[in-house]
Amino acid sequence: MKRLLFVITLGLFLYSCGKKDRGELVGVGGKRWHPEKPYGMTLVPGGSFIMGKSESDVAGGMNAPTKTVTVRSFYMDETEITNSEYRQFVEWVKDSIIRTKLAILADYEGLTPDDGGIGEYAFDDADTSKLSAYDKYMLENYGGMGETGYEGRMLNKKPRLIWDTSKYPDEYYTEVMDSMYLSMEESYNGYRTIDVTQLKYKYTWMDIQAAAKMKKGNRKDFLKTEELMIYPDTTVWIKDFYYSYNEPMHNDYFWHDAYSEYPVVGVSWKQAKAFCNWRTKYKNDFQKSRGKGFVNQFRLPIEAEWEYAARGGLESGTYPWGGPYLIDERGCFLANFKPNRGDYASDDALYTVEAKSYQPNDYGLYNMAGNVSEWTNSAYDPNSYDYASTMNPNAYDERNKRKVIRGGSWKDVAYFLQVSTRDFEYQDSARSYIGFRTVQDYMGTSEIGR
């Protein structure tokens, strides 16, 4: 017994001697945090401003009384999310679905990479002898816990997908790829297209607001799973404007390279939220592969953040450039909107323009007025300014399906371009004049506007 106590005491002594804190309270060590400016974003330094309509409310909305509020620092996309950027999301989802189908069929047929063909796309964990102890444990304890029985399996993303039908490796591969396209009966002109209804993105998020209000409850009670089709609704160009010839925009706007740098439209609020989740996952998957720390989430801006960013640091400006005029000293329009009744083209644009058009505001943000209206994360309540906090004010209400949109668009008159004008759309709706941009919280508090 004495020998055991001596060993324990000696161990504690050696442990204490090995520490570098000299017995002082120095805190837990960790890596020094170096904030990294997200690609394509600009820093909006936090601060206070007068939110609401300081000018006359000519529309009589009475939904934006002035109040002084403060927002924290955040990064914001310099431009609206473009067709090219959203297509990256769509392509990732399509790639993942195809690889999942290939892996499931390979597993069903008992094929592995050694068999070639579709076996090349077998689950990465098909050979358990190559798994780490952790991955093997996770597969044995959590693999298959879901509807399909293949949840928790790791996709093999090394082999490239083959799109040339003449180079399909075997009949199994052909079967999977054929299932991704519309049937021959639904095709015309001899051209088959991808069945976009299959392009669904599934993710889980936690309703922190609801969890904070509940005194009791398990964490899983506040986890919500979303699964939705993520391909933009290209028919908005037809549905939004009856008795109008907009078929070329319907046919080409989203997928054609000519429109790659134009803002994506036809995306609902829910789809914009899904994009934010994917962007976070996509970045953190890369961070993990490089052994780097995770970044915090990308998200839609709350209404106060959007207005603060749109103002560009200018006090009581009517537009992002100040105002009150809509043209510069050369007589050129400062934004893409509808200048007069029936006149869409005086500003040199009939529909949208490239996302990086006109001059940015003083925060380096493009098209915070006009081009496309933008989704925010806030629910729309005409009275929310009366009860919302003065610190990062946000009307959060999951039951309220009306979501705030800001900035006005190519089809709107000047009133909707004002930084203080509020508007809304239902969260399941998609329009030819609504897009979005994302934000990311600044970690720390040193970047505050003065």
From TrEMBL:
Keywords: Lipoprotein. GO terms for molecular function: formylglycine-generating oxidase activity. The gene is gldK. Residues 40-439 form the Sulfatase-modifying factor enzyme-like domain. This is Gliding motility lipoprotein GldK. InterPro entries: CTDL_fold, Glid_motil-assoc_lipo_GldK, Sulfatase_Mod_Factor_Kinase, SUMF_dom, SUMF_sf. Pfam families: FGE-sulfatase. PANTHER family: FORMYLGLYCINE-GENERATING ENZYME, SULFATASE MODIFYING FACTOR 1, 2. It comes from Sinomicrobium pectinilyticum.
